[in-house]
Amino acid sequence: MDEQTVYLTTDELAKRWRTSPESLRFHRHVGKGPRSVKFGRRVLYPVDGVESYEREQLEKQNDGRGPEAA
Description:
A hairpin with a 2-residue loop joins strand 2 and strand 3. The protein has helices spanning 10-17, 21-29, 47-61, and strands at 7-9, 37-39, 42-46. The chain is built from three helices and three strands, in the order βααββα. By secondary structure, the protein is an alpha+beta fold. Strands 1-3-2 form a three-stranded antiparallel beta sheet.
């Protein structure tokens, strides 16, 4: 596979979602939110997993009608 996976840190994802890093840590702790991976002590979020999670949330919030229904 030639593609290199791009990752976001907890702080970068918090800025993207306009929330606090603590909120992301809590959601990770309770098993909610996008998939994350740990490299040593560092938690990272694959961008493709974040985008997939965002699409799923949009679909749920729009009753499965897609983001254009908002």
